[in-house]
């Protein structure tokens, strides 16, 4: 598929193929694909009857609720680009992204009323989703086909190391992302994918898109509650669940004695490679975990590590999925990871030049990650290019240090940054979230680090913080660590 190819509207197609098959489950409510279409069309009629302020694109501050789910699909059905914004952002940040996207109207999920009530009241172009009921009903004109290069969604990068970019994700991007995933994970007609990750993030939205492409069900939960989710995994015929490392760790802590249901196949892990201790726990419990690597610009996963290979490839993210190509550009087989494939996004919103700056002359996308392939073709990520710092002439990657210290009992999470040093230029400094009652002993931690790391990689300082700044997917926002440095200096 290339150029101006088109596909039949995915929702329409699934209603034709399997109208009575489960499409969505939320708490005690279920929707078949036909019922999902009816719910989406009701909202779409109201949106069409609203007014022209919807424009080319409309922003959503979503929760993990059916209302937000329906809204995203309704906008796609009428050809309006949904701009998905993170409710955890400050109001000023949300306003910056709204203006950057050229959006007039913003809809907010009602589950966020406590947080956004005053904000919505004071902004005439902001509405809670429930207010749609008041709009006039318009004449519905559904988009019958999805053009390959039409924009299916816009979401902003997490901004772990700098200013967030609005990524233009096309229907072609989502389609091939879904194909690469299914060729790796397999597919059963009655598969159900549990979605506890936010649907404003690519990990959550891609579950929605896969459901429409595969014709499989989504079990949507409002937020991550390990006890409730464990109960669902034990009692519902759920096949797959997307998790980040902290979610998997907490689920293992409350793993039910009878295990999960017989249909459960695997966890799809993103965000960071699995720790050896967690992997061993999963093996003992006979729980499959597929590790993956991807980004907003690639519409989710592009590399995956099968569970069978994981024990011998600790730290690897896996091999490239079909039809993605991955290469390393650098010296001595270590360098920036570059990718090429039909699921690489089209551009950045209002920043074509910025996107093109990340493309090589022969059309490969530069990820900003530094990595290498081993002799068997498994990809290892050392860290972000823009997080790397130089200490005494040596390249230091914070990710490598963080992986070592994450194995220390009592350390919940750790983030490492380079700080100025007169002698060495920069030296590592670690910010640590600890378990309750854990006493951090710097000398002991330094001695531990020297067993596994070169001396210049061992943090010179360890600073305990209540919580590290994180993105929606659980990644630490290194760009905000400098703020912690400033506070610590004060």
TrEMBL record:
HAMAP family: MenE (MF_00731). Residues 13-349 form the AMP-dependent synthetase/ligase domain. It comes from Liquorilactobacillus sucicola DSM 21376 = JCM 15457. One of its GO terms (molecular function) is medium-chain fatty acid-CoA ligase activity. Pathway: Quinol/quinone metabolism; 1,4-dihydroxy-2-naphthoate biosynthesis; 1,4-dihydroxy-2-naphthoate from chorismate: step 5/7; Quinol/quinone metabolism; menaquinone biosynthesis. InterPro entries: AMP-bd_C, AMP-bd_C_sf, AMP-dep_synth/lig_dom, ANL_N_sf, MenE. Its EC number is 6.2.1.26. This is 2-succinylbenzoate--CoA ligase. The gene is menE. Pfam families: AMP-binding, AMP-binding_C. Transmembrane segments: none annotated. One of its GO terms (biological process) is fatty acid metabolic process.
């Amino acid at each position: 598929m290339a150029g101006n190819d088109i596909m039949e509207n995915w929702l329409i197609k699934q209603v034709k193929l399997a109208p009575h098959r489960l499409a969505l489950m939320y708490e005690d409510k279920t929707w078949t694909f036909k019922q999902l279409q009816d719910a989406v069309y009701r909202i779409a009629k109201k949106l069409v009857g609203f007014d022209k302020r919807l424009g080319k694109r409309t922003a959503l501050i979503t929760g993990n609720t059916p209302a937000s789910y329906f809204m995203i699909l309704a906008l796609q059905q009428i050809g309006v680009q949904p701009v998905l914004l993170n409710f955890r952002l400050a109001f000023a940040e949300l306003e910056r992204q709204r203006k950057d996207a050229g959006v007039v109207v913003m809809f907010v999920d009602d589950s966020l009323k406590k947080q956004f009530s005053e904000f919505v009241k004071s902004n005439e172009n902001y509405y809670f989703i429930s207010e749609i009921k008041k709009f006039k009903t318009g004449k519905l004109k559904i988009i019958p086909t999805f053009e390959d290069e039409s924009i299916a969604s816009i979401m902003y990068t997490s901004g772990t190391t700098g200013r967030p970019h609005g990524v233009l994700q096309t229907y072609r991007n989502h389609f091939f992302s879904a194909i690469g995933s299914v060729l790796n994970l397999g597919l059963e007609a009655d598969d159900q994918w549990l979605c506890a990750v936010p649907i404003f993030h690519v990990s959550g939205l891609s579950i929605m898109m896969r459901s429409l492409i595969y014709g499989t069900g989504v079990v949507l939960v409002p937020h991550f509650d390990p006890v409730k989710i464990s109960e669902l995994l034990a009692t519902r015929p759920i096949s797959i669940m997307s998790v980040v490392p902290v979610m998997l760790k907490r689920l293992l802590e409350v793993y039910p004695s009878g295990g999960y249901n017989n249909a459960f196949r695997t966890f799809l892990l993103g965000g960071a490679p699995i720790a050896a201790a967690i992997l061993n726990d999963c093996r003992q419990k006979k729980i499959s975990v597929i590790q993956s690597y991807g980004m907003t610009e690639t519409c989710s996963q592009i590399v995956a590590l099968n569970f069978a290979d994981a024990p011998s490839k600790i730290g690897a993210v896996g091999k490239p999925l079909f039809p993605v190509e991955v290469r390393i550009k650098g010296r001595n087989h270590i360098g920036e990871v570059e990718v090429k494939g039909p699921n690489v996004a089209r551009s950045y919103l209002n920043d074509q030049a910025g996107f093109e700056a990340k493309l090589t002359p022969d059309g490969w996308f530069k990820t900003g990650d530094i990595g290498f392939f081993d002799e068997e073709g498994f990809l290892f990520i050392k860290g972000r290019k823009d997080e790397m710092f130089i200490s005494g002439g040596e390249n230091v990657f914070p990710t490598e240090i963080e992986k070592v210290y994450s194995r220390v009992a009592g350390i919940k999470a750790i983030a490492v940054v380079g700080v100025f040093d007169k002698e060495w230029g920069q030296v590592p400094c670690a910010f640590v979230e600890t378990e309750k009652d854990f006493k951090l002993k710097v000398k002991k931690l330094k001695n531990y680090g020297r067993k596994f790391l070169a001396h210049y990689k061992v943090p010179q300082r360890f600073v305990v913080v209540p919580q590290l700044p994180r993105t929606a997917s659980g990644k630490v926002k290194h760009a905000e660590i400098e703020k912690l440095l400033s506070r610590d200096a004060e």
